[in-house]
Amino acid sequence: MAVYRWKTFAEDEDRPDKPRRFGVTEIRGPNHTSLFSHTLLQDMMESMGQFVDGLKFTGGSESLMPKSFIKEATKLAHEHDIYVSTGDWAEHLLQKGSSSFKEYIEECKQLGFDTVELNTGSLELPEETLLRYIRLIKSHGLKAKPQFAVKFNKADIPPTHARAYGAYVVPTPRTSERVEDVDLLIRKAERCLEAGADMILIDAEDVCKYADSVRADIIAKVIGRLGIEKTMFEASNAKTSEWFIKQYGSNVNLFVDHSQVLDLECLRGRNLGKNHKSVIDSWFL
Hints:
Layout: E1 25-28, H1 38-48, E2 54-56, H2 67-79, E3 83-85, H3 90-94, H4 98-111, E4 115-119, H5 120-123, H6 127-139, E5 143-148, E6 152-157, E7 175-180, H7 182-194, E8 200-202, H8 216-226, E9 231-234, H9 238-248, E10 253-257, H10 261-269
Parallel strand pairs: 1-2, 1-10, 2-3, 4-5, 5-8, 8-9, 9-10
Antiparallel strand pairs: 6-7
Helix pairs in contact: 1-2, 7-8, 9-10
């Protein structure tokens, strides 16, 4: 009778053990849409903590929680070699001025956060100001993770026919096309990395929100310019995660919902990437 062996990576697997610089799985943690308790977090960490690299408090959820709970959560995560990241909250603090942002950074460190995320789309900061905030985060011994989204702006296309002088011509409605700012995104991300940012997070919207409409060209361009170790992509669902693993192997960094962790780890372990060897047979004896 065959004896089942829990999944392990093959000896020649190039994805490192924790703490990892690549092949990172960051999960969406406590937020306003779900009720999280210390017991639930503990159960999650004990059951799948070995497969999780980072835990993110999303949507400013940390601002609604008792500090004692946050400290317990960050302590528990650290016990499982999991870093803890803030979510979209910095932009709210910046409305009160740069001094409030500095106090926020100091409090994040006191509460046990390791990474501060900056949503560049929501912040709408001048580029030099963004770089200054990254340096401020780094000066406090924390990691900085700017989040970028690909924007699509409409550009008018004037009509090509000639207008007759001295005669009335019915005006032709102008059409428009969507112009992507991918090159601008990459240039800003490169400057953020030069300023000390540790990881660039790419939002799923308009890039990889749905598996059947993934913008492979944009993703390839971002990874080609920034490197696979310095980029993390938000994967909205299991099919999108599978697409990333098939295209880029187990070393791609992904931000997923906590419910997708085990499926994602199985995909990583099966080496679905183009240049990886299948190890499915090694799962069983």
